[in-house]
Amino acid sequence: MRFKLFVVCALACGFMAYVLANENVSTEVEDQIIKTVPANKAPKIVEAAEFVEIPEELKTTPAVKKVDKVSPPAVAPAAAKASSPAPAAAKPQAKPIVQAAVAAAAPMKLSPVASSRGTDDILTVAGLKPQAKSGALVMPLEYLGELYDVDTSGYNWDPNNNVAPPDTASTAAGGYTITSARLAELRQNFMYWFFDKDMYGGRGDYQFDIHASMTQLHKNLNFQMPFYGFRFNYTRLSLNGYLEFSDPPEYLTYPLVFPIKDWPVKRDPSFMGIFFSKCRVGRIYPTDIDQRTPGVYWRVVRDLMGRTDRFGVEVRERTMWDIRTGVVGADTFVPKHVVIATWKNVSFAGGIDNSLFTTNTFQMVLATDEVYTYAIWNYAVLNWLSHTEAGGDTTKGEGGTPAYVGFNAGNGTQAYEYKPYSQNMVIRDLANRGWGNGFPGRHIFRLDEQILIGSCNKDIDAALLPLTFAPESGNMLGGQVVNITGPCFDPDIRVTCHFDTESVLGTYVDRNRVICVQPFLKAEGYIRFQISVGTQRFKWRGKYFVETPAAATEKIFFATDDVHKKNPNEIRITWNAFNLTSNANANVMISLWGYRETKIEPQLEYIDVIEASLTNTGSYVITPSNYLNRHNINNDMQFGFLQINLTQPDQYSNLALSPILWSRPIPLAWYMAPQWEQKHGKRWPRALCDNWIRADRFLRNFAADLPLCPCTLEQAVLDKGRFRPDRECDKDSNPSCLRHRGAIHCVVSGTPVAQGAEQQCCYDRYGFLMLTYDQMWGSRPRRIHNLGKMPWNEASKVPSLSMWFHDMRPFYSCCYWQEEQAVGCETYRFERRPSQDCVAYQAPGVAGVFGDPHLITFDGTQYTFNGLGEFVLARSTDQSERFEVQGRFQQMPPNYYGQVMATQLTSVAMRGNTTTTIEVRLRPLHARWRYRLDVLADGRKVYFDRESLKFQHFDGVTVYTPTYLLNQSQVVVQFDAGIGIEVVENEGFMTGRVFLPWKFINKTAGLFGNWSYNKLDDFTLPNGQVASINTNDMRSLYYNFGLKWMLTDRDVSGVGAALFTREFGRMASYYSNASFVPNFVMNPVDFLPANRSYDVDRAEELCGECSQCEYDYAMTLDRDLAHFTKNYYETLVNMQTENAQRVVSCGVLQTPRFGRKLSFDFMPGAKVAFECNEGFILVGDQRRECLANGLWNLPEYGYTECLREVYYTRRIAFIAIGIILLVIVPLMLCIVCGVYRYRQKQLKEDPHWQMPVLPRSRAGSARNLRVLNYDPEDDSDTDASTLKKTKKWDLDMNDEDVTSSEGEKPKQTGRRSLRSGSGTELNHDGTAIDDEAGHHDDDDDYDEGDIHTGTVHPAGYHQPLSPEEADHLHQQQYSPTFSGVDSRTSGASSINYTPQAAAQNRFGGVPVLPNNTQYYNRPPSGVPQATAAATATPVRIAPTQLTQDSGLPSPPLPHATSPTPSVQKSTEV
């Protein structure tokens, strides 16, 4: 028995020693193996050799554009320096496995090459034998005895040398410069460097500490390596075919599934699995050419960007060009650090002894610049698939579950399994697929944020396959070269790329890449991008982002603003030459394009060549005078673009395709002005403006649909639901404000209104709204939104282009190229694009959640709810305007004392009526190094780290991040209905705020309550009932209100269904826990133990009077949480206070034409003064004041105007005339009305009464005379009708007739009273007469008939004339030129007349009637007024008989003198 035990122990010890000997080959054994295969005994292994054809020489064959048929390139092209063009990928038909010298010595020779597989026919039997690969694994026979490239230190720089080079990093100037030939030689090798020796007798890269009993080693990287959203400065090198960054699970269950759902209960490791399977160190045959020790190798090469030593330069250049040519989108990548991990001849665990010779060899190369990380996986040999624990056999490692190939981010976040190879029998095809850099077996990935495959995948098939392409966005105008990787391409099979609604043919580059040039797309935002290969359907798909021309990445830069001027001398432009090609000798062409809308179809047309051929230096000066004699057919185009492209791209890139660089939209006056002048004259800007005004007046009015501008900049910034920053004038990213001088910030409506218009509001340095009524640089609404309107392929709906055509173009022709006071500019400012004031602006309602968590409703109710799960924050109860905002609350991490019974906000999901669902999610703790928040649109992650991607528009919703942030720590979501949601993150703590317009008042529900300005209904339940809850009773609030709004994955009436993106099978129940019992005590003094008084004091010190802050600190002991809780609380309260204040504005106060306002303020208390331009005079009030009631004070002196001096003089004259007319016309009307009423009254009393007339002419005198002598009952020839035929009666036949028409006619001045100088009436002889004796008209019985016939009886009755008396009266009748009325103005007494007096002939006529008191009650000229009034006679007094004695004058006495002119009254007109 003892002997048997001894034998068993001896056998066991022997077996263990044998296993250990096989697991770890000693140095002595290695030396023996090397000695057994000397270089001069190569013919002994010829029988076990493989024959590989060696090409005669290494030459390049340029790739050309393939449309119908594409021939593959022959071998790898020559590489260049780091500053030279990127070398094409190495694509050998038959890979060289010997050195160049050997190949040159024996062209087309079948050289024997030893194979490490020997008699192993696993892959051969399967028919999947890979092509031979050159490199360190398979080496030529002559290697060990030849010195290939020996430097002064004695080191051989052959790429296949197994001895490590001198590890002396250098950054000294004038170091090593790699040649194109050397770079090409390095890149022709499949495997990267790994060494089992060094020059100092060490083990090189070999990790002898890794073996079966210790399968991994910790490795410090000493730099930050981004991986799958996280960032690590260390790793663990595992024998089991992966690099890990955290502890793996205690045991594994096959097939492996990552991420582990039970995390954090179970560990979820973060790892890169190139061949994740249990391995052990294998063995090699003594006949294998590569006799480097089996095992794991590790090398880190750091700080490559500045290194000048040879090995550093070669590692940097080889890695850089392999990645640049192997991965789309890596054109500018320069590695900073490189990690090379190699698993050479590793076998599977659990196999028998002979299975140690069944080995796999693979290599992982990691390159990073600490922002981007790329991985190159080289699968040299795969002879086994699985280990025994996974179900594999013990001899060949076949069967069971094959190795896992892929990546896991860890911490329960996300994973990427490389399908179809991972854990599948086709995993052996990894050595034959990939075709990275033209090598079968090489697979390239990008790892930093998401896992993007850079190699083709031939073995996968599905309805929807992920497509990798770069760049992922491009200018809407087209010309973007898109590199595509996905399926493995064939040069003879056509590839079609489909951009939304446009299709183009792809150009074959290599088996791993196809290029498509983006066409002109009339679209914006994310569109469908898909390709088809051959006759297959479009199953490879992705999302391509279309940038609007006005917001696209700027690639042509203007040094100054001269391009916007009307007549610039020169225009300087620059561009990045490497955006076209890295060849500095390439030629480019600069051309000009224009846009117009004269048809339904948008018209983007070529105009002219600016420069036909120019060396690609990156700069050019345009001289507009060179284009004076152009005569373009399309000279009606007023704006357009500059375009730059290669003239002969096939000479530089082996492709007949050229990238195209576009400028931003620019006006074309610098080019078209001479043609416009010929067409419209010198005032062509006015003509262009007038044409636009006429056309614009036919279009609909759009201003009524726009939201009103906020009054101040503070209000505009806080209105997150309706306004976003304007790219053209942003205080954070673009303060130039070219078209809004004097502004510091502008905002525009976030989404187009129903009719597609856009509001713009600009603010000056004082924060006040700028109006076009004040200046041409004010806010201007736009007919077309920059995003356009569906369908985008129609005129007036194209993104950016239609906006420029309708809104930007007229600004230049009407205002920018004319004076501000021009008629066209004022029409543009006041009529067509006037600013909307903020008189009726309504600030939005705000509610928010923060901390762990604390909520403030729209009505201002504050409470704390520590629910665990997904809940409704706010939703609309109006079916016509629906929206939902949901929040996910997860438990706080434990603190020093253990578990924290409180929660925090970690995700917000939202959706409008029919819009895209947006989710904003907090990233894991160690994944926040680059992005703080994840944004998902319909479950797909989107990023905002580039300028052109800062504002992204989806269906019915716009999402943007502030332009000054690159880490996505603040996200704003705006819906078409004016709803805004803002999510902010700081140090891992989120806050969410909801902004609603007034149309949602009394139409909301959820944890944010009903917005009704009544706090009593804030706790409305899903069924519509209002819960009566005290906010201090946190337990009642938790169970009776908060939990009622918990979400599930099914639709619940009044609550809805969860909107969150589900990953890895985690449904709502994974996050929700209705049985969770949080802390219901708010005051830290009440729930903290007595021995933690320090924490209470600390909370009071940090938080002051903020109870929410004190609660959070006492619960978590986290100072950051307390700080940001206080910050979020104060911010939200200030927002509500600001928005609750009544907005008072006086509105527009128009600036007088040809004048200016000294202030543009329109808020209460503002005083605005006016001034006029030189040569103008201010009329009206010089200052106006905005009153507290929101009205401008009434002007005291009239509305303010600025008039030219001549117009001012005219106005004053017109005003004077007007005043006179205003006084005289009413007075005349009153007189006329008075006379009319008087006449009506007299006619009523006496129908025969006639208005007395004051004659002013002979005709008037004759007419009066006829009236006086008219007798209606007398039918004799002496009636009034015959008076015209009566011979003129002369006063004296010997005297000259003063009325004669013969001879010289003396001036007739009428009859005047003869008075003395004292005013006494004179007789015929010039003596005074008795007034009372000379009057015979005292008879009161007057009748009008007495005037015509008869005499007045002394008794008062009428006595008719006898015929003889009448005839005698006719003979002595007074001349018809004079009338009785004239006598009224000639005096009141008898007149002494001397016809012979010369003075009498000079001054006057002949008084006929001695007295006029019979018609007028006026005193004689010489009688005082008082006496005259006392002795006035009645108006109606019967006249005396018209006789010579009583009325006709006597011949003047010789000594009589005529009266002076001063006392005469003329009756002549």
**Strand composition percent:** 15-25%
Based on CA inertia axes, which overall geometry fits? Answer: globular
Helical stretch tally: 24
The profile of the biggest β sheet is: 8 strands, antiparallel
Computed Rg: 55 Å
Question: pLDDT under 50 segments (min length 5)?
Answer: 22-147, 1275-1322, 1324-1358, 1373-1448, 1452-1469
Q: Termini distance?
A: 174 Å
Oligomerization state? single chain
Class from helix and strand fractions: alpha+beta
What does this structure look like?
With 1469 residues, the chain is an alpha+beta fold. It is built from 24 helices and 62 strands. Strand 16 (434-436) and strand 17 (439-440) form a beta hairpin. Helix 9 (684-696) packs parallel to helix 12 and helix 16 packs across helix 17. The radius of gyration is 55 Å and the shape is globular. The termini are far apart. 44% of the residues are buried. Mean pLDDT is 79; it is low at 22-147, 1275-1322, 1324-1358, 1373-1448 and 1452-1469.
List the helices and strands and how they pair.
Layout: H1 2-23, H2 27-36, E1 49-53, H3 100-105, E2 110-114, H4 122-125, E3 163-164, H5 180-187, E4 197-198, E5 216-227, E6 230-238, E7 242-244, E8 271-276, E9 279-281, E10 295-301, H6 310-326, E11 337-348, E12 360-368, E13 373-381, E14 404-408, E15 415-417, E16 434-436, E17 439-440, E18 442-446, E19 452-453, E20 465-466, E21 468-470, E22 473-475, E23 481-485, E24 495-499, E25 502-505, E26 507-510, E27 513-517, E28 525-533, E29 540-547, E30 556-558, E31 571-575, E32 587-596, E33 603-615, E34 619-622, E35 639-646, H7 650-653, E36 660-662, E37 666-667, H8 669-680, H9 684-696, H10 713-718, E38 723-725, E39 743-749, E40 760-764, H11 801-816, H12 823-832, E41 845-850, E42 854-856, E43 862-864, E44 869-876, E45 884-891, E46 903-911, E47 918-922, E48 933-937, E49 940-942, E50 951-954, E51 957-960, E52 970-975, E53 980-986, E54 989-996, E55 1004-1005, H13 1034-1040, H14 1068-1071, H15 1084-1087, H16 1093-1103, H17 1107-1116, H18 1119-1140, E56 1155-1157, E57 1167-1172, E58 1176-1179, E59 1183-1185, E60 1201-1204, H19 1205-1245, H20 1258-1268, ...
